[in-house]
Structure formats: C-alpha cells, structure tokens
Amino acid sequence: FKKDCPTGQLDPDTFVSMYSQVFPRGNAEEFSKHAFRTFDTDNSGTIDFTEFLLALHVTSAGSPQDKLRWAFRMYDVDGNGSIDMQEMQKVIQGVYQMLGSKDKGRAEEVFKKMDLDADGTVTEKEFMEACSTDKELMTLLTPNISQN
C-alpha cells in the first residue's frame, strides 16, 4: 500500500488503474467507481490504509453475512438503504464491463429475484435473504471470471 500510495491515501484514479491491471481484458472504470465508494467509508474521496485493510478483510476473510452487507452497500449507489433498478443496472453493467463481457439483461433478472415484495426497491434484508437462499443469484452477482 505504501509503495503505491506514498501519501497513505489511495485516490480514485490510482484505484481504477489497479483494477484495470487485474482485469486487463475489460473496462474496470465503472465497477471501480462503485468499489471505491464502498471502500471509502468516511466519504473523504480517498481510501486510507485502515479503510483498505477493512475492505480487504471483509471481502476475503469476512463471514458470508459481512460479505453480503458489503455487497449491498456497493449496489446501494445513493446510500439510501435500498437498491432500485437503476442502481442494480449500474453496478451489474460495471461488473460485466470489467470482465469484458455483456450483462445480457442480468440486472433485470437479479432485481426481480431480489425484490421479494415487488415494491420496486430491494432492502438489505431482501438482498441478504435472496443471496443466502439462491446459489444461481450469487453466480449472477459474482460471475466466474473465467467464463467470458
């Protein structure tokens, strides 16, 4: 972290550049914006070392529930506590662009499965419940990188 960010702060451009190196076949910019926003827990516009470590811990060693909460925050683009269709489309399109493939209407498919009460929004509870009980849904949200 110190080598890539000598100031101790990771800025959005450096973050996009890092993701682009990991996913060279696709366009990582859109997904990186959503991931950056989720990592930047204090909304400072940069990611400090503590935020970086917390995000790494949750995404790699956290419990399934912690990972789902983190994912929900990423999909809840405006931070209002629920996900609407436009937010779902933005993030899923970003994921598939990063992987170098088309999302083929997956956002709509995922949204319908998650919006359990069909009110046009997905709450954190609905998100957690749908992901915990539907393996296919998890596959759609986190596509296998080798399947392009």
Helices, strands, pairings?
Elements: E1 9-10, H1 12-22, H2 29-39, E2 47-48, H3 49-60, H4 64-75, E3 82-83, H5 85-98, H6 106-114, E4 122-123, H7 124-133, H8 135-141
Antiparallel strand pairs: 1-2, 3-4
Provide structural commentary.
- With 148 residues, this protein is mainly alpha-helical.
- It is built from 8 helices and 4 strands, in the order βααβααβααβαα.
- Strands 1-2 form a two-stranded antiparallel ribbon. A two-stranded antiparallel ribbon has the order 3-4.
- The longest helix is centred in the middle third of the chain and has 14 residues.
- It is globular, with a radius of gyration of 15 Å.
- The chain starts with 8 loop residues before the first strand and ends in a 7-residue tail after the last helix.
Number of helices: 8
Helix content: 55-70%
- Average pLDDT metric: 87
Major sheet strand order: 1-2
Gyration radius, rounded? 15 Å
Instruction: Calculate the terminal CA-CA distance, rounded to whole Å.
Output: 30 Å
Write the element-wise H/E pattern from the N-terminal end onward: EHHEHHEHHEHH
Largest sheet: 2 strands, antiparallel
Instruction: Detail the poorly predicted runs.
Output: 144-148
Structural class assignment = mainly alpha
Strand percentage, roughly? 5-15%
Shape: globular
User: Would you report the number of β strands?
Assistant: 4
